[in-house]
Known about the structure:
Elements: H1 2-10, H2 21-26, E1 30-31, E2 36-37, E3 42-43, E4 51-53, E5 58-59, E6 64-65, E7 68-69, H3 73-76, E8 80-81, E9 84-86, E10 91-92, E11 97-98, E12 103-104, E13 109-110, E14 115-116, E15 124-128, E16 131-136, H4 137-149, E17 152-154, H5 166-175, E18 181-183
Parallel strand pairs: 1-4, 2-5, 3-6, 4-9, 5-10, 6-11, 9-12, 10-13, 11-14, 13-15, 17-18
Antiparallel strand pairs: 7-8, 15-16
Amino acid sequence: MRLFNFLRARFRKFLNEEYWLEDYLKAGMKIGKNCDINPGLLIDHSHCWLIEIGNNVTLAPEVYLLAHDASMKRTLGKTKIGKVVLEDNTFIGARAIIMPGVTIGQNSIVAAGSVVVKSVPPNSVVGGNPARHLMTVQEFMCKHEQMISQSICYDSSWLIQNGITPEMKEQMAQTLHQKQGYIV
């Protein structure tokens, strides 16, 4: 059994087994405190020491953090590499891709599905493919404050972890048909 565990650990990358966050940290990736990392995060295992995640960062499901780009390897014989830095208090939306050499500035938001190929200044909201500046975080929050005042809002009893009932789920689905709401 010890031999199996040794071989498994030694040849994990060849077996296509999933790497765990602790493996990336051991290999040199840096991560701050109080981060919210959702399922399916994909980290560039071959260059993970070039990835730095600050404090209070949220990574939504299936975010990609890539510190290398091998698209020119066959033709030019080189692979582009660069640091990926997610500064404090950033939010990276579901299935966003952060490319090598990109820094996401403090307090910034990257929209779901975005492909970020250039660094993002602090306090910015970016989105798209390639990602572009949409507005400041302050403008984003003001926009949603106005929308909240005109929308359906649900308290924490409507969350899975607080026991939302099947009836409440059905009511929410019917009420939010073709409109959006907010939840605490």
